[in-house]
Amino acid sequence: MANNKRTFGNVAKGIWVRICLSIASHLYPAQLRNPWYRMAGVKIGKGSKIGATVDIDHSVPELITIGNNVWVTRGVMLLCHQRDLTQYEIGKPVMDCDLVFKPIVIKDGAHIGIGAIIMPGVTIGEGAVIGAGAVVTHDIPAYSVAVGVPARVMKTFASK
């Protein structure tokens, strides 16, 4: 999914993405951050806010989709790539394993707590709440509260 060849265009894009993400991460107030995240390739809906020092995957920010009225709080990490350990074996450097790239989708009205880590391939359902420091390794259903390492659904809200 990501092109790892070191062409001039890829290097220039990588530099641009890192500049945009670095600027966005430190701007105040939060409303000023979204245009910079969008310039890096992140898809962000209306009314969403991204807190300071959020770490958005520099390799493939275009794989991140954030819906409307989402709050991603300070220090969250959105990671769209990881090593494919299916080929890993004793004596082989883990860095020789290929990277796998998967999208992250955070649906409308979700809230991601301080310092949470969202791993590749995860969808956070509409209105879901992710607790501070949680490590989300699988999809979280709509209107649920998920906490812990790894994150587990602790409560789901029913329609009234």
Index terms:
about 160 residues; 16 strands; 2 helices; globular; alpha/beta; UDP N-Acetylglucosamine Acyltransferase, domain 1
Low-confidence stretches: none
What is the rounded Rg? 16 Å
Tell me about the largest β-sheet.
6 strands, mixed
Q: Could you say what the CATH topology is called?
A: UDP N-Acetylglucosamine Acyltransferase, domain 1
Number of strands: 16
Strand content: 25-35%
Number of domains: 1
Count of individual helical segments: 2
Architecture per CATH nomenclature, i.e. the level-2 architecture:
3 Solenoid
Mean pLDDT: 92
Shape summary: globular
Strand order of the largest sheet: 2-5-10-13-15-16
CATH class: Mainly Beta
CATH superfamily, by name, is Hexapeptide repeat proteins
User: What structural category do the secondary elements indicate?
Assistant: alpha/beta
What distance lies between the first and last C-alpha atoms, to the nearest angstrom? 42 Å
Succession of helices and strands: HHEEEEEEEEEEEEEEEE
Helix content: 10-25%
Describe the SSE topology.
Layout: H1 8-26, H2 33-40, E1 43-44, E2 49-50, E3 55-56, E4 64-66, E5 71-72, E6 77-78, E7 81-83, E8 99-101, E9 104-106, E10 111-112, E11 117-118, E12 123-124, E13 129-130, E14 135-136, E15 144-147, E16 152-156
Summarize the structure.
This protein has two helices and 16 strands.
